[in-house]
């Protein structure tokens, strides 16, 4: 029957007229708008389908109590726009400085209505091509060898209009409520429809199903007017400051934890919701029981004929009846519109609410179908920020760069620098890059070394899950080794049961940098690009395979990794050991002396002084260099011939010394000190 229906659907569309676009985007939420921006900037043929009359329709309703939990930090003490995006969790990426969220709200936690207005302006000011009031109700495939991916995507809307595209970007979000069915679940009110007027709950007893931010947001709204609130969920409460995952419970919503632990009647319970049952008495009160008590019993016969847990255990926790039960269990992806030919399958385990996708955000079942935004969060669920605006604005840009290379032959953007700028380039990025900072352990900067390590090519914010496919996905070559720069938390610092405020939780010394707990930069060095097999065999909880060398830059209280001794010097020595070269900078006088005393000049002298370039000396610079012991003080030198030839002082001897750097094994490369 299924085959007959599928064949019938193909016959039905075979005679239809299709409007063609290279790219079709489903959904004009934040991710859809972000994808449309990049496609428009690249001059591509695209269309965005939005079922509502305006973009961001999800935020027109949610969160129900209208306060976002994405921060909007107005001041950071810095004017660097890239750095400031680290603390702006609402803005989308664009060239228009007017479209920064701080111009729309000064609230640290903005109102959701402001987000709706912001998204409307983003779409209109940038003139994005969006087709509103168009709900895509069916998506299928049409095999065609001439198509980019060997097939076209055929889309049908609510008016039976048909569209065809070569690549499909799904940015429809997660909007189908999670519902648990159990006896009596018809008495449960949903988060999406429950009243948000606290007066409607005055003097009532409430049970909330769920333990995420929507559940605590609902509780926070009625905390001061209810008799008491109980909250039940399968898992224990997870605090975002302990897990370092922004999707877990945020402090702004956790008032119920205070009233629970300070014994003000409210409370939290753990239990499998599918084992529950609700029975309504004659007065309209809701009684909580267990499903197995209702087996072989007729609920309609009345509550008096049903055994309740308190009949056997008189101190049963939920023995008091409730006036209302509210379901706050989050949302899941809508799989219903996708034909079986697309093989859009749900994930497994705790990511079953998301579609299955690769680390490149491409569907595992269909080439050319990419999932963007909240629905792509399976890649980094409970690890990073890929399910939120401040994370998926960067992953959406990464997907666009992958598509540009695949379909249009545009390689991943990169910049080539001389090897002398290696340390500076890394320090600059780890101190200001927002994509690395927000999508820690997911996006990485890649440094591709040129032959003989005389230069390097810098690629920004590449998905490390597809590191083995780097050459194919980016159009860049990694023939002479590479460095991978990512941000990481300490291995054992995050977790629902972790005490993240323990004494001596921070590391301050460079030699102990590998024990850093807070977010900090980590540099992996590979002599060869890791293979797919090596990626699959990486150690548990490691974002990358075991490298040839690794270096942790010690965590910093100010997240400012510019300290000369604690941050820069150990990094430079690590890079020098990996490359067996000297990455220091020199004055022209030093390079002049090296030409007479060394067979091989340091790269800085080769690329500067020998080519009649470099840092020109001045009286002030020379004075500073003499005081630092970097140069001989020639103003007091006796040139009469009486001075012995070997009477140079210690600083000159250090300058003339051969700076050959031995290559150390991996365990000695972590936190290398200057010798």
Walkthrough of the structure:
It comes from Cnemophilus loriae. Keywords: Endoplasmic reticulum, FAD, Flavoprotein, Glycoprotein, Oxidoreductase, Signal. Residues 1-15 form the signal peptide. Pfam families: Pyr_redox_3. With 675 residues, this protein is α/β, with parallel strands linked by helices. It folds into 4 domains: 19-174 and 332-402, FAD/NAD(P)-binding domain; 185-329, 3-Layer(bba) Sandwich (FAD/NAD(P)-binding domain); 414-579, no CATH class; 588-625, no CATH class. 25% of the residues lie in helices and 17% in strands. It contains 20 helices and 22 strands. Strands 1, 2, 3, 4, 5, 6 and 16 form a 7-stranded mixed sheet that branches. Strands 17-19-18-20-21-22 form a 6-stranded antiparallel sheet. A 5-stranded parallel sheet has the order 8-14-9-10-11, with helices on one face. Strand 12 and strand 13 (286-290) form a beta hairpin. It is globular, with a radius of gyration of 31 Å.
């Amino acid at each position: 029957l299924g085959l007959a229906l599928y064949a019938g659907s193909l016959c039905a569309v075979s005679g239809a007229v299709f409007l063609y676009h290279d790219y079709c985007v489903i959904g004009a939420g934040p991710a859809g708008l972000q994808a449309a921006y990049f496609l428009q900037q690249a001059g591509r043929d695209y269309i965005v389908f939005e079922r509502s009359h305006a973009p961001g329709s999800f935020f027109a309703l949610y969160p129900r109590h209208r306060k976002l939990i994405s921060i909007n930090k107005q001041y950071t003490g810095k004017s660097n726009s890239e750095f400031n995006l680290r603390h702006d969790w609402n803005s989308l990426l664009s060239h228009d400085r007017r479209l920064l969220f701080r111009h729309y709200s000064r609230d640290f936690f903005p109102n959701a209505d402001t987000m709706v207005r912001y998204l409307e302006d983003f779409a209109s000011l940038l003139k994005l091509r969006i087709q509103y009031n168009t709900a895509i109700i069916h998506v299928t495939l049409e095999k065609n060898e001439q198509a980019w991916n060997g097939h076209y995507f055929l889309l049908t809307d609510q008016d039976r209009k048909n569209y065809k595209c070569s690549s499909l970007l799904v940015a429809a979000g997660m909007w189908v409520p999670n519902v648990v069915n159990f006896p009596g679940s018809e008495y449960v009110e949903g988060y999406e429809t429950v009243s948000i007027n606290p007066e409607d709950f005055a003097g009532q007893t409430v049970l909330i199903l769920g333990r995420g931010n929507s559940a605590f947001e609902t509780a926070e709204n009625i905390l001061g007017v209810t008799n008491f609130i109980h909250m039940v969920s399968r898992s224990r409460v997870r605090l975002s400051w302990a897990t370092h995952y922004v999707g877990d419970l945020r402090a702004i919503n956790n008032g119920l934890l205070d009233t629970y632990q300070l014994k003000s009647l409210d409370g939290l319970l753990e239990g499998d919701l599918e084992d529950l049952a609700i029975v309504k008495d004659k007065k309209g009160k809701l009684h909580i029981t267990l499903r197995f008590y209702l087996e072989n019993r007729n609920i309609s016969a009345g509550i008096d004929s049903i055994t309740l847990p308190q009949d056997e255990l008189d101190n049963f926790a939920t023995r008091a009846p409730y006036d209302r039960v509210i379901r706050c269990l989050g949302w899941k992806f809508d799989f219903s519109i996708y034909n079986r030919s697309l093989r859009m399958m749900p994930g497994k385990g705790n990511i079953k609410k998301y579609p299955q996708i690769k680390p490149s955000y491409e569907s595992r079942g269909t080439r050319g179908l990419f999932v963007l935004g909240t629905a792509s969060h399976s890649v980094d669920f409970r690890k990073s920020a890929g399910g939120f605006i401040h994370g998926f604005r960067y992953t959406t840009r990464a997907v666009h760069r992958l598509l540009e290379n695949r379909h249009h032959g545009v390689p991943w953007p990169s910049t080539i620098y001389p090897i002398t700028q290696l340390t500076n380039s890394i320090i600059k990025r780890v101190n200001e890059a927002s994509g690395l900072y927000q999508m820690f352990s997911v996006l990485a900067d890649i440094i591709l070394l040129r032959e003989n390590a005389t230069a390097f090519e810098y690629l920004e914010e590449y998905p490390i899950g597809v590191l083995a496919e780097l050459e194919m996905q980016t159009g860049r070559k990694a023939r002479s080794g590479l460095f991978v720069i990512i941000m990481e938390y300490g291995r054992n610092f995050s977790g629902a049961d972790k005490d993240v405020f323990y004494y001596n939780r921070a590391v301050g010394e460079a030699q102990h940098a590998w024990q850093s707990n807070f977010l900090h930069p980590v540099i992996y060095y590979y002599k060869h690009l890791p293979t797919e097999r090596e990626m699959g065999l990486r150690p548990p909880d490691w974002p990358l395979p075991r490298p040839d060398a690794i270096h942790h830059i010690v965590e910093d209280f100010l997240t400012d990794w510019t300290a000369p001794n604690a941050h820069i010097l150990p990094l430079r020595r690590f890079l020098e050991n990996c490359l067996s070269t000297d990455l220091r900078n020199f004055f022209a006088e030093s390079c002049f002396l090296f030409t007479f005393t060394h067979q091989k000049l340091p790269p800085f002298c080769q690329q500067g002084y020998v080519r009649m370039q470099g840092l020109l000396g001045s009286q002030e610079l020379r004075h500073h260099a003499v005081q630092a012991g970097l140069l001989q003080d020639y103003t007091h030198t006796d040139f009469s011939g009486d001075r012995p030839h070997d009477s140079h002082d210690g600083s000159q001897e250090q300058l003339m010394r051969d700076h050959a750097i031995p290559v150390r094994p991996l365990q000695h490369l972590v936190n290398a000190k200057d010798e």
